[in-house]
Design a protein that fits this description.
heterodimer, A: two-stranded antiparallel ribbon, 5 helices, B: mainly alpha, three-stranded antiparallel β-sheet, 60% helix, transit peptide (chain A)
């Protein structure tokens, strides 16, 4: 039930490179634990032989998948499952960090702008003070340009992984079809 | 995660009249695993949702009437519950029954334990119950990734962005209808089908590439690949099964030029526009070309050649894309910034508005060029002037005000402006044999 962590060393540098956020390692690990707990807490029904997909994660907005490992799993199927699992974790880390950083920097920006204007964090009615879209535009532009390199690395890795997973899925599907044909041939002959 | 306003804790805390009271036996509370009764009430109607509870020793069903009466009725535990898959601490699996409540008679309670004890226990149970409720609710949101044959058409329709495909096919049809020469129905149908298939393929590949980005944007978070309703392999297979027959239909059923344009457009959209969205603002110009090619394909399907009329029609669609997309992107700046999309509205806001206005004005110029190239009569620039001026006015307002309101007005105007413009073009189409009669008044 717990997610298998393959020692795929080739992909480790990718994880490190695309992860240049300013969030502490401890916070990251805590989040990873929470996310792992969320995925591992779910147990699919015993009779099910499919993967299960859950609701969007609070931080990354990505939907976690619980991968099903059948008893007669071939090495190729195992490789596919491990690659998907690792890609899921890698994606989760990137987007959770990205969204949290965005939220944090947005709050800081709003606070600093409000301070510059001489306003407090709350309006007279007690509601949270916000800036309008035009004032926020400066922040959006700055955030996008600051994270540009990070996104370039992520895009490249994401495309590579997506192609690899889909290609492996194709191979697995062919392997399964071949296996079924052979079994049918054996039973008929 | 917001709790339902009708959860137990709110009832106990607010003490609202008609709230539910829990009568739980001490034995049942102390037993393992912890299972709790939840009561939910839908205030909109008389139906009561009751969650079937299964303790170790006995099962209780509590019904809440809209009034103040309630009853607790012990029920014998069934021999084998088909809904209990497994038990482990911290997990609750409950069966939900829906019962009509109006006819529940008020009966005296069978048991009434010490109220203080109940309150204390209820408070601790509330916390556990909320946790378990949250877990149960989350658990229920997990879906098996199994494709059902009944759902497949709907899923594939959403994967191929069927509504957008329909719009693309209609612009192709407009191009076909505007082209000179007799209207050939079989050719028209083949062109429409081929273009539709090519568009489905391109849209599917686009969604295949953009899964994590789509998950993070409100507009796109319910797409099939994001929700896991279909696997990436199936999406790619579907795209291939659309692209190959679509292009083949266009190449051999219509003409090779249209087929080539179809392949080029698929390539431009999937391999240029989609990755470019995250690299440079040039993606908007590439996307405008992608939108301009379908009517050109319609024209080349009818005439077999890429002449000035085709390019003018393509030019009109090209110019239209800018007020349409730039206005739309104005309201999505936060999502684009967070998701890493390079859009003019985020990086160069002034350019964004300037380009939108520029192309609104270009539409007037292109409409005027239509009779010059013998596509329409001179009636066309005259009767299309009001709508062209209106969209230009909205473009000007967007340029000056640069706010959400003006961007939305421009976007919604663009949605009806294009179909109306194409319709006017069709009604003013230059008929054959009247090519010298440019000054003809509209009939």
């Amino acid at each position: 039930m717990a997610a298998l962590r393959p020692g795929s060393k080739a992909l480790r540098p990718l994880v490190g490179r695309s992860f240049s956020g300013g969030v502490g390692r401890l916070a990251r690990e805590r989040r990873a634990e929470r996310r792992d707990a969320a995925v591992s807490r779910f147990c699919p029904p015993r009779h099910s032989c499919h993967d299960w997909i859950g609701p969007p994660d609070k931080y990354s907005n990505l939907r976690p998948v619980h991968f099903h490992a059948p008893e007669d799993e071939s090495p190729l199927e195992q490789r596919l499952r491990e690659l998907r699992q690792e890609t899921q974790e890698w994606n989760q880390q990137f987007w959770a960090n990205q969204n949290l950083t965005f939220r944090k920097e947005k709050e800081e920006f709003i606070y600093s702008r409000l301070q510059a204007k001489g306003l407090g964090l709350r309006t007279e009615s007690g509601q949270r003070a916000t800036l309008d879209a035009e004032e926020m535009a400066d922040f959006y532009k700055e955030f996008l340009s600051k994270n540009f390199q990070k996104h370039m690395c992520y895009n490249r890795d994401w495309y590579k992984r997506n192609f690899a997973i889909t290609f492996l899925m194709g191979k697995v599907a062919l392997e399964r079809m071949w296996r079924r044909l052979r079994q049918r041939h054996k039973t008929t002959s | 995660m917001a709790a339902s306003p009708h959860t137990l804790s709110s009832r106990l805390l607010t003490g609202s009249v008609g709230g539910c009271l829990w009568y739980l036996e001490k034995r049942a509370i102390q037993g393992l695993p912890h299972r709790v009764t939840h009561l939910f009430r839908n205030v909109n109607n008389q139906w009561v949702m009751v969650q079937h509870l299964s303790f170790l020793k006995r099962m209780y069903v509590t019904q809440l009437h809209r009034g103040l009466s309630q009853r607790v009725k012990p029920k014998p535990e069934p021999a084998a519950s088909p809904f209990l898959e497994h038990t482990s601490s911290g997990q609750a699996r409950a069966e939900v029954d829906e019962l009509p409540s109006p006819f529940v008679p008020s009966l005296p309670l069978s048991r009434k334990p010490n109220e203080d004890l109940v309150e204390l226990e209820a408070a601790s149970i509330v916390d556990r119950s909320l946790d378990i409720a949250k877990e149960t609710k989350e658990e229920k949101q997990w879906k098996e990734m199994k494709v059902h044959a009944d759902d497949l058409p709907g899923i594939l329709a959403r994967l191929s962005k069927i509504k957008l495909t329909a719009l693309v096919v209609s612009t192709t049809s407009a191009g076909f209808a505007l082209a000179p020469g007799p209207f050939n129905w079989p050719c028209f149908l083949l062109t429409s089908l081929g273009t539709g298939l090519a568009s489905c393929a391109a849209n599917s590949i686009n969604q295949f590439f953009e899964v994590p980005f789509d998950s993070n944007m409100n507009r796109t978070k319910n797409r099939p690949l994001v929700r896991g309703q279909i696997s990436p392999l199936l999406a790619v297979c579907f795209a291939t099964c659309c692209a190959v027959p679509g292009v083949a239909l266009l190449t051999w059923g219509v003409n090779p030029l249209t087929g080539a344009l179809g392949v080029f457009n698929i390539f431009l959209y999937t391999c240029c526009y989609t990755p470019l969205k995250r690299i440079s603002i040039a993606n908007t110009w590439v996307g405008a070309v992608v939108g301009a090619i379908p009517p050109v394909m319609g024209w080349t399907a009818a005439t077999g050649s890429l002449d000035a009329g085709a390019l003018l029609l393509g030019g009109i669609l090209y110019s239209w894309q800018f007020p349409h997309f730039n206005a739309l992107s104005w309201g999505l700046r936060e999502d684009y910034s967070r998701g890493g999309y390079c859009m003019m509205s985020v990086t160069h806001p002034a350019l964004c508005r300037r380009v939108a206005l520029r192309h609104c004005l270009a539409l007037i110029a292109l409409s005027t060029a239509a009779p010059v190239l013998d596509i329409t009569t001179w009636a066309f620039p005259i009767i299309s002037l009001p709508i062209n001026l209106y969209i230009s006015y909205l473009g000007f307002r967007f340029y000056m005000d640069a706010d959400r309101r003006s961007s939305r007005k421009l976007f919604f105007c663009s949605l009806w402006h294009l179909p109306l413009l194409l319709l006017l073009m069709l009604t003013c189409k230059q008929r054959p044999g009247r090519e010298g009669d440019k000054g003809e008044a509209p009939s």
